[in-house]
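Wed. Picked up where I left off yesterday with Serine/threonine-protein phosphatase 6 regulatory ankyrin repeat subunit A. The coffee machine is broken again, so keeping this brief.
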Amino acid sequence: MVRLLLSRGANINAFDKKDRRAIHWAAYMGHIEVVKLLASHGSEYLLDLGVDINEPNGYGNTPLHVACYNGQDVVVNELIECGANVNQVNEKGFAPLHFTAASRHGALCLELLVGNGALVNIKSKDGKTPLHMTAIHGRFSRSQAIIQNGAEIDCEENNGNTPLHISARYGHELLINTLITNGADTAKRGVHGMFPLHLAALSGFSDCCRKLLSSGFDIDTPDDFGRTCLHAAAAVGNLDCLNLLLNTGADFNRKDSFGRSPLHYAAANCNYQCLFALVGSGASVNDLDKRGCTPLHYAAASDTDGKCLEYLLRNDANPGIRDNQGYNAVHYASA
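Structure written out below (C-alpha cells, as returned):
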C-alpha cells in the first residue's frame, strides 16, 4: 500500500500536527518493511524523495528515538544500518539510549545502540544519563548492561542526585543492590543535601531503607537543613520506615536546623501512628524548636481529628508553654 501511494505521488515528507512523518510512525509501530521502503538502504531512493533518516519530529525525536521508545529492535537495527545517528538528542537532550533505558522492551535495542557507538554517559539537559533512566523506571537488566559498558555509577543530574538516589526515590530495591555492589556511594549528597536513605524514607520504601542501612550508612547524618532520615519518615508518616530506623538506633530527639525533632514533624503533619511510636520510644513531648514551639503547638494547629493532640496531652505535653511570640497551644488551635 505504501509503495502504491508513493507511486501515485504521495508526499513522503507530509507531517501531522506534531511534526511526525511517515518514517516516524513506521519506526514507532515496528513496520520493518515500510521502514526499509522509506529508507531502503539509504541511497538514491532516499535522496531522490528527500527523506532524512535523522529527521526530527516536533519534539526533536528522530525515527531512531521512537523505535527505541517502543522497543522495535528490528527497526532500530535497520535504521542504524541506514546511517541513523545513535547520539542525536531531542529537544530535552535525550538520546535514543535514554529512551531504550526507560522502555519496557529495550534490551536488544540497548545492545544495538551500544554496539554502534552510543555514549553510555551522555546527559540530557537536566543532567540525566541512561543509568538515571533505568533507575527511574526500574529496568534492572538494562542497568547491569549499561554499567558493564562503562556507565559512571555516581554520575549526578542537575539536582545532584545519582542513580542510587533515584532508585531509592522510586523504590527499586534490586537496582539499589546492583548499584551498591558496583561501588555506588551511599553517603553522596543529592538534592538539598539529602542522601539516598532520606529519599527512600520520604517515599516510604522500607525494604530500600533496610538495604541502604545494611551498607553501613550513618543513620543520623543530616541533610542541608539538619534533617535526618527519621525526620523524613516522621514527616510523611511511614510507620514501617520509622520503626526500622528507630530499631536501628536513630536518634529520636535529634533536632534539625530549625530546632525541630522528628516528633515536631509527625505532629505538624498529623501522622498519629508515627507520633505514637516516637513518644513510645521516649521522644520528648515538650522540646522547643527555635520559634519556641513544642510538638503540641503543631498538633493544635493542624490536627483536625484530635488524635495527636489527645495523645500528647495524655503523655504530659504542657499546654501552657508559650512560643517566642507568647502564644500557647490554645492560641494555635483557635487560629
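Quick read: The longest helix spans residues 73-81.
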